[in-house]
Specification:
The complex is a heterodimer. By secondary structure, chain A is α+β, with helices and mostly antiparallel strands. Chain A has 11 helices and 13 strands. In chain A, β2, α2 and β3 form a beta-alpha-beta unit. In chain A, α4 runs antiparallel to α7 and α10 packs across α11. Chain A is globular, with a radius of gyration of 19 Å. The C terminus of chain A is likely disordered. Chain B is an alpha/beta fold. In chain B, the strands form 2 sheets. In chain B, strands 2-1-5-3-4 form a 5-stranded mixed β-sheet, with helices on both faces. The chains are: A alpha+beta, B alpha/beta. Chains A and B meet through α2 and α5 of A and β4 of B.
Chain lengths: 296, 210
């Protein structure tokens, strides 16, 4: 094994081009587990800790450009206003020690369906900025996850940042696990209201081969809110609408039975989380609901 | 490969480090510092918690090569680290810290008490060292049972009290949520952290009154 220590982003890209099999390591919270347990013996480890810009973020007019290695702790502490859904999701990641090291780039690189950031990223809407010596490109999050632990990255590409839409309305995140810390999600659900475009976006984690959106549920809800004039009247969500939304969200899930839960439990829980998070965000939109403070 | 980094305030060098090796392995097996415990090797238990550039992390999940040029504080250096922080707000001169040999022989001497609880004198280079306030609190509250989880808990609790001197119970629970105690001695551990916080608070009040 070789340990590559690029001192800059350009050097990192050059190293990845020269050694496409090199495994990038930043927080190490996934990679080191695999190495410790002898599940993986990469030829090259590509350490990204010395690339400072990966730990920086920029808040723009419409988006936040979040460096791939910004630790979850920083997201929770500094980006709660701009990225409330992701901040909530970050708070559910493992433990303080893990949140101090891990970042969104690792979740995206690993592309596990159970990664905590995915539902929030899908709901907020974002583009993943990837780069190689050949150039840079933005991959829409909807096109990023290509299979179980597979993503749209080419072998010579590295994740530079995520361009996430700043919240224009309430966002929520919910996760099912056996305790309040140190759990891999049994399943998870993210939701973001986008009053500017009068749309609602969702994300489901750990309940399909990849993180997914509940497309049919979104379509139904967008139409129902529009037809009922809910965005203007800000009236309470009709229980039948919430129920239908929950059923469609559960239907979008395509889970499996495993040690953490059964498929039928996961489908059921996704429906419950969809209904609850819709209620929370909508009550917040109406101006009398709970805020994201103190939740999760 | 060779890795140069600071351990407990002193410059150290590790040779012949395997590229896939963890910081924890380097600390325990190459530097003879077994205070950071090796248990789950997957970041679940927090027994190997150390400070990396001030931040609590699981040493088992940090690749050794990633600590090049960085600063690590282990439980063996915690007493001196806490002392420097209390007296000088940290180690400015770079001359403080715990030498490797002393760290390797580090042994708590509860009779000496914690350095700023006013019950004992400063150890002064003696490996049978004075305790940090959080260590003393763990002893006084009976928070040490088998002791395996203790080093990680001490590092995590000490770091929380550093930036949150008056934690609520929820704050304590959250700060320690990454540290497992298989003896399930959590109540006493919570007591210990509350005790350390109360002593720190009282100390601050006394200093403020002078």
């Amino acid at each position: 094994m070789d340990f590559l220590r690029p001192a800059s982003w350009e050097e990192a890209l050059a190293a990845k081009a020269e050694h496409p099999t090199a495994v990038p390591i930043a927080g190490g919270t996934d990679v080191m587990v695999e190495i410790n347990f002898d599940h993986r013996r990469p030829e090259y480890l590509l350490d990204l800790n010395r690339v400072g810009e990966l730990r920086e973020w920029e808040v723009g007019a419409d988006t936040v450009r979040l460096g791939a290695s910004v630790p979850y702790t920083q997201i929770m502490e500094n980006l709660r206003t701009e990225l409330p859904g992701l901040a909530l999701a970050s708070h559910t990641v493992a433990s303080p020690q893990i949140r101090n090291r891990g970042g969104v780039g690792g979740n995206l690189g690993t592309a596990s369906p159970a990664g905590d950031a995915h539902p929030a990223l899908l709901a907020a809407d974002c583009e993943v900025e990837v780069e190689s010596v050949r150039g840079s490109r933005l991959i829409p999050i909807d096109a990023f996850y290509t299979g179980v632990k597979r993503n749209a990255l080419a072998a010579d590409e590295l994740i530079r940042s995520v361009h996430i839409k700043k919240a224009d309305g309430p966002q929520q995140y919910s996760k099912v696990g056996t305790r309040n810390a140190m759990v891999i999600a049994v399943c998870a659900f993210g939701i973001a209201l986008h009053p500017e475009t009068r749309t609602v976006r969702t994300g489901i984690g750990s309940a399909a081969p990849t993180p997914i959106r509940a497309a049919a549920a979104e379509e139904f809800l967008n139409a129902a809110l529009e037809e009922g004039g809910f965005w203007d009247s800000r009236k309470i969500i009709t229980p039948s609408i919430a129920k239908q939304f929950a059923q469609l969200a559960a239907g979008a899930a395509n889970p499996i039975d495993d040690v953490r839960g059964t498929a039928s439990y996961r489908r059921h829980a996704v429906g419950i989380m969809a209904r609850r998070t819709l209620t929370w965000t909508w009550e917040s939109y109406r101006g009398n609901g709970r805020t994201t403070e103190g939740v999760a | 490969m060779r890795v140069n980094f600071t351990v407990n305030g002193r410059q150290q060098e590790a040779d012949d480090v395997w590229e896939g090796e963890s910081l924890l392995y380097v600390l325990r097996e190459r530097m003879g510092l077994p205070g950071s415990k090796n248990a789950c090797e997957q970041g679940e238990c927090g027994s190997c918690t150390v400070r990396l550039d001030g931040v609590p992390v699981c040493a088992c999940l940090v690749a050794a090569g990633q600590v090049e040029g960085r600063e690590v504080v282990t439980v063996e250096g915690l007493a001196d680290f806490a002392k420097q922080r209390a007296e000088h707000g940290g180690c400015a001169s770079g001359a403080c810290g715990t030498p490797l040999q002393e760290a390797q022989r580090w042994r708590a001497d509860p009779a000496k008490g914690a350095m700023d609880s006013g019950t004992g004198e400063v150890g002064g280079g003696n490996p049978d060292a004075t305790l940090s306030p959080i260590q003393q609190a763990f002893i006084d509250a009976g928070a040490v049972q088998c002791g395996f989880c203790t080093p990680g808990l001490l590092i995590a609790a000490d770091e929380m009290l550093e930036h949150n001197p008056q934690p609520t119970d929820a704050d304590i629970r959250e700060a320690l949520s990454g540290n497992l105690c298989r003896c399930t001695g959590y109540e006493k551990i919570l007591d210990a952290v509350r005790l350390a916080a109360a002593r720190q608070d009282r100390q601050g009040l006394q200093e403020g009154a002078v």
